[in-house]
Design brief:
Elements lengths: L1 H9 L20 E5 L13 H6 L3 E4 L7 H13 L5 E6 L2 H5 L5 E3 L10 H5 L11 E3 L4 E4 L1 H8 L5 H10 L3 E2 H5 L13 E5 L7 H10 L3 E5 L5 H4 L1 H11 L11 E2 L1
Parallel strand pairs: 1-2, 1-3, 3-4, 4-8, 8-9
Antiparallel strand pairs: 5-6, 6-7, 9-10
Amino acid sequence: MGTRAARLRGLRVASIAKGRNGRNGMTAASNVILVHGAWADGSSWSKVIPLLLDGGLRVTAVQLPLISLRGDVATVKRAIALEDGPIILVGHSYGGVVITEAGLIYIAAFAPDVGQSVGSLGASVEPAPMGAEVRPDAQGFLKLTEAGVKNDFAQDLTPIEKSILFAAQAPTAAAALGENVSVASWKAKPSWYLVATADRAIQPSLERAMAKAINAKTVEIASSHVAMLARPEETANLILEAAGRASPSNVGLKSA
């Protein structure tokens, strides 16, 4: 019981033998937990999951409630508690805020410091085009318009894939996007970041700035916001490298 409680408190992730961002000092991971972003669910990793399984990882794609940051972090903690062996966490978009409490790999994601949120980071740069396509309801939940999904969220997917994303989008509480992070684990753990250079949901300039701020190993991919669907091979390769299961030369088109 004591061991299990300690795992929960420490958010058990792949261990580090070196100091901050000592890339070669991380124990190879056997498990990966994938954390989706706003207006999405675990199926947004559907193209990446088979590639990670082929790479020898055990994969869990969580389903966030998207009601509060605290609730979403709790969901990830429950997933961590069920795993055995070293774990890496991967977050997309808002999921990057969730994993910042413990995380490692950011896919076109927000990477906040303590006291920052999705809202405060987004406000630090020129608004991204998708922001004009967000609509609130009477209960304080946000949805994307059809144009927002098809032209700004996932503009490089097929027409049917865009339609599926629009139909299946998960309304996201505005309050969750305004909640501040209380722990920035990237200060003590190595991090990786995938910049989506055609992102219209988060400004690529902001992605680069966040990657630099957390001292992440960075790759840049010509992709929309949903890089894991538009460019699954490159996304999977970055995750496999971070897990100690792939050569860095196989990761992406541009490293920084």
